[in-house]
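Hi support team,

I submitted a single chain yesterday and got back a structure, but I'm not sure I'm reading the C-alpha cell output correctly. Could someone confirm the output below corresponds to the sequence I sent? I've pasted both exactly as they appear in my results page.

Thanks,
R.
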Amino acid sequence: MNYYLITIFSFSLMATACSRPDQSTEKAETEVSEAEVAEAATSAEIDVSSIELTDLEGNTISWESLRGKKVFLNFWATWCKPCIVEMPSMQQASEQLGEDYVFLAASYEELDKIKTFAGQRDFSFQFVHTKTPLENLNIYSIPTTFLINEEGELVETVIGSRPWNQSETINHLKNL
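Hi R., thanks for writing in. Yes, this is the structure output for that exact sequence:
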C-alpha cells in the first residue's frame, strides 16, 4: 500500500513539475516590439567606424569616404532566404532615394561566395564583405539593416526583412 501511495505521489509531483507555465505570464515577459529591439540595438552605441568593409576586389571601404552621405547598410548571407527576398525592394528603394543614400549589402561569408552571388543578380547597390564578426555589432539574426546618418552615426537598426520600397518607408528613410 505504501509503495502504491509513493508511486502516485511521485507521478503527481512530476506532472506538476513538468507542466507548462502560465502562458499569459510567459507571453507578457517575452513579447517585445520590433521598435524596442531596434532601439536597444541602436542604444548599444555601436561605433560604425569600427565596421571593417571591403569591396569585392578586397579594397578597404573608408568610412571617411562615406561621411556626408546617408548609408543603408544591410547585413545578409547567400543562404538567407529572407535576405534574398528583400533585395528587389532594396533595389527599388535605392533607385527612389537616388543620391540621398549609399546602399551597401554586407556579408560575413567568403569573398568568392559573395562575388558569385552578386554576379548572378542584377542589383545596382554595392555588395561588400565585412570582416567584423556580426556578434561584435549586436547582430544575432539576419537580415539586419543599419541606417547611418551623414555624420556617420548609427541612428536606427532594423531587424528582419522589410518591403523597403513602400512609400511610407521611403519617406521615413528620407527624413532620417
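A quick pointer for reading it: The chain has one domain: 33-174. Let us know if anything else looks off.

Best,
Support desk
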